[in-house]
Design a protein that fits this description.
Layout: E1 4-5, H1 16-24, H2 36-48, E2 53-57, H3 60-71, E3 77-81, H4 85-88, H5 93-98, E4 101-105, H6 114-120, E5 131-137, H7 150-162, E6 166-171, H8 174-181, H9 185-189, E7 194-198, E8 209-213, H10 215-227, H11 236-248, H12 253-269, E9 273-274, E10 281-285, H13 289-298, E11 301-302, E12 304-307, E13 310-314, H14 321-338
Parallel strand pairs: 1-11, 3-4, 3-5, 5-6, 6-7
Antiparallel strand pairs: 2-8, 7-8, 9-10, 10-13, 12-13
């Protein structure tokens, strides 16, 4: 029996229908600008995010790093949440690629306040790095998969504009946020100067993200992508998977959210302390988390320890109801072992 893989929603495998779509896709050369499937995906995701244009990228990290490069100059400062993905999980790319420093702002459940943004912008001074960009992450991964209220998104953008900052949304799981909020994606993210969207998380495509923004920004971003080695040739194979995901895997994200809540409630019944999930990320307090990770693996459940006494469990299209039940059985067994 295959393990229940809750390490991330990046572990999903293409469905048979997605594979069929990939191999049926018309192809060209995306670096030369004539792959019809990539062009179709870029037009589709630009429209769905309320932006003018889009750029297909191999990863969300590259999309975020291109955005930072577009909005800053070397020596600038980028404001972002203390839980932000570009700070914790992008290998220092902002410093290496764009020559900028990061200023982390305090959060509650991974979410900054407009007041924190205003306070985070330092007065012009020869001693200070000038702030030029605000990055927001929705949903917030380290914040627990939390969804920004639309009013908060608007307030963050307003605070940034009032302080002459460009705005970028790291929307790796922005579709999860939109589905959970019951709102159109474009209404939530269209107000940002740029937004990145990941196709290889909950949407279930094997590879790929997109950076969306104005025609001018995306034209410049295409050159940055080339500089970073992100230009791909017959990339329509991958773009077709993303198009299939947009057609078939958006509404079903609600199933992942429901299973995450079922898992959280079941863990609570087993005596665990769990942060109530808003989307598909479940953070649970687990004694001896590193040992628990190894124990669970021997019981057919894969998950990551995110701290000495915390684990993250991620539901996705390859996790069904039976998988949730198997997970609860494994956690019950660990609690029994850990209490001895």
């Amino acid at each position: 029996m295959s393990p229940v893989d809750l390490r991330s929603d990046t572990v999903t495998r293409p469905t048979p229908a997605m594979k069929t779509a990939m191999f049926a896709a018309p192809l060209g050369d995306d670096v030369l600008g004539d792959d019809p499937t990539v062009l179709a995906l870029e037009a589709r995701i630009a429209a769905e995010t309320g932006q003018q244009a889009a750029l297909f990228t191999p990863s969300g990290t590259m999309a975020n790093q291109i955005a930072i490069a577009l909005h800053t100059r070397p020596g600038d400062e980028v404001l972002m949440a203390d839980t932000a993905h570009p700070y914790h999980y992008e290998a220092g790319g902002a410093a290496m690629i764009s020559g900028v420093q990061t200023r982390l702002l305090p959060t509650t459940n991974g979410q900054m306040s407009a007041e924190a943004v205003a306070l985070g912008v330092r007065k012009p001074d020869v001693h200070h790095a000038p702030a030029s960009l605000l990055c927001v992450e929705d949903t917030s991964n380290k914040g627990g998969g939390t969804v920004h209220d639309d009013a908060l998104l608007a307030a963050l953008v307003a605070a940034a504009k009032a302080n002459n900052l460009a705005t970028h949304l790291d929307g790796a799981r922005a579709y999860n946020a939109a589905v959970a909020a019951g709102e159109l994606l474009a209404n939530r993210v269209g107000r940002f100067d740029t937004v990145s969207i990941c196709f290889s998380k909950g949407l279930g495509a094997p590879v790929g993200s997109a950076l969306c923004g104005s025609h001018e920004l995306i034209a410049r971003g295409r050159r940055v992508r080339k500089m970073l080695g992100g230009g791909m040739r017959q990339a329509g194979l991958l773009a077709a998977a993303a198009l299939h995901a947009l057609d078939h895997h958006v509404e079903r994200l609600a199933d992942d959210h429901k299973r995450a809540r079922t898992l959280a409630m079941g863990l609570m019944v087993e005596g665990y302390t769990v942060r109530t999930p808003q989307t598909n990320l479940v953070y649970v307090d687990v004694p001896k988390a590193a040992q628990a990770q190894d124990f669970l693996a021997t019981h057919g459940v894969l998950a990551f320890a995110t701290g000495p006494s915390q684990m993250r469990l991620v539901t996705h299209l390859d996790v069904d109801d039976a998988g949730i039940e198997r997970t609860l059985v494994a956690f019950r067994a660990w609690r029994s072992v850990a209490s001895q």
